[in-house]
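Q: For a teaching session next week I want to show students how multiple molecules come together into a single three-dimensional assembly. I've collected the sequence lines for a complex. Could you give me the predicted structure tokens for the whole thing so I can convert them for display?
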Amino acid sequence: MQQEFFVNTAACVGALCRVQQTAVELSLAAKNAKAIAYRAGTKAVGFKPLTDFIDEMGRDTFRLVTEINATALRVARRAVDEVRLQDACARFERARRMMSASQTHLDDVQLKLEEELATNRQEIARGLRRLLDLLEGINHRMRAAAVISTRARVEATQAGDYEGGLQLVADTVERSAATIRTIISRCDRQLRDAA
Amino acid sequence: MRSTPLYSSKHQWVVFGRDPAKTQDIIDTNQYLIVDGKRALLLDPGGIETFSAMLSAVAGYCDIEHISDIFASHQDPDVISSLGLWDRAVPHARLHAPWLWEGFLKHFGCHSIEYVGIPDEGSTLTLETVSLEFVPAHYLHSSGNFHVYDARARILFSGDVGAALEAPEAPMFVDDFNAHTAKMTMFHQRWMPSNAAKNDWIKRVRALDIDILAPQHGRLFRGDDVKRFLDWFEALDVGIAVAAEKLSQAA
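A: Of course. Below is the structure for the complete assembly, covering every listed component.
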């Protein structure tokens, strides 16, 4: 595992905070779309189910990102522990090499450190697998969002005076989904490269 | 890491320092070990960078698991930033340090070692047979600061008081006091902030019977050089950065 892993995970935690903000924007866009669709009445009848879907996706994305953030933070903490444990192992090993006689107590300390390091590595691997699964879950939803925004544009053309407002909603969904996908792909790549 | 026995009777004092493997860009430090039967006390065990050399050097004098106590005179990194590693090496030990620094020192990592805060007025610690006194030395230079006095060995561990910036190969003891003052002057004038605190400490320390005054940096003082140091320090005006600021404002 590379030394920069803890930096990359911390950077991902920061980037994922932006996804959370974008997920909120997605939900707001859905609420806005609902209001427009209500005013448009029968002209926007095809748009209403889409707004329900966008709203649900926004809330779902927010929930998932919250879990991703918590998991990423746990992995980031473990990654820092890994660096500190490795450093401690190296310093104890250096001391042991300098000693003229062995000390049983220090052998036990070193063994315990190595066990802790192994457990920490297992926890990082487990956290990382969960994190990548969650990222894939978000990615899947954002692919669906891209399809929905295309359908929303088609439905908007039927809404007469309300077309402009609904097109804006479709734009927001498309832009938010693209932003989230970009960040998620970058995090996914960073985590896979660093692990 | 060089080690020099200072006192050897029912209990022992050893000083460690002048580490040839140390990188040149970190200040040289003196670490002390007191061994009393199956209990041992480390005084200002040093920074994270000197931990390996220190651990191996200490292992030459006692079983590491016999280290029951650690003392930190104050919070500086060269004094105690190795705490997180000692916490793993001797999780059963107790750390005696100024109560004022508890929340700060724990940033170095102190999960297993018990923190025993020393009250402002000082306290005593008894190992197997020897009693050691934690002597208040507040504002010399830290706002919460203690020294350690061993009445039986007549040694005062004096933290940064008496410290000098020395070459790595310098001898352990002062051999020419007058020449040595040149290496101490700037250190004491700049690091020690208060003449009142300095004079209060000198009054307290003059009442002690001291054969060796043992600072955390530079050479140790023994015999008549202890009194010479106290006289020199008493006459020295400290806290000069404040004075310099006043002078520049007046100009």
